[in-house]
Amino acid sequence: MTQPQPLPASKSQTFRLICLATDVPEGMKAGHIPARSALGRLPDFARLWGHVAPLYRPAAVVCASDVQSDTWAQATRIPLVQQEALRDRSYGLWHGLALRDVPPHELACFVQEPEYAPNGAESAQAFQARIGTWVEGAALHGRIVLVARPAVVRALAVHALGGDCSLANRLDAEPKSLSVLTRHAGLWRVRQYGVALPDLERGCA
């Protein structure tokens, strides 16, 4: 899988992003900040693709670098490109720590203050800017499936809504969910957000 440099995109460019949010890394379920090496996963991707592909007929799959996708190429049979810019937010030296081991005041600041970035972590503002810069600069055409961890899909929705990182605190980031974002004539639209992936089997797409 290659990592081509994004090309400048015209503001009039039309495309649809079918965003699949992965499950959260196992450590998060146990109250830990994800390890730096942790990967998001979509169990039984081949079966899921069997529902997504006929509904949306995507031309390409873009996958974040912190998502396990090494077995997906055979299922999709279309180009699959990894993007480092779509990785989840960096926690710096906090990666792998139990939440109880992080000073409560520092954790609250990290969540609530846009520019707070302790111990080499990425601030909420910087994370949102990174995701917005990627989606505005990438050469996207037609229908693209984008697979990333939940916080990244939420940041894409925030960008589409014209919000800043403070809006992210008002949107749930649902694991194993589908969101659809479109851009036409320079205008973004959130067509769907946070639809549970099992609902695809009941025709909810």
UniProtKB/TrEMBL annotation:
Entries under Gene3D superfamilies matching the protein: Phosphoglycerate mutase-like
Xref: Pfam families: His_Phos_1
Protein name as it appears in the record: Phosphoglycerate/bisphosphoglycerate mutase
Source organism per UniProt: Acetobacter cibinongensis
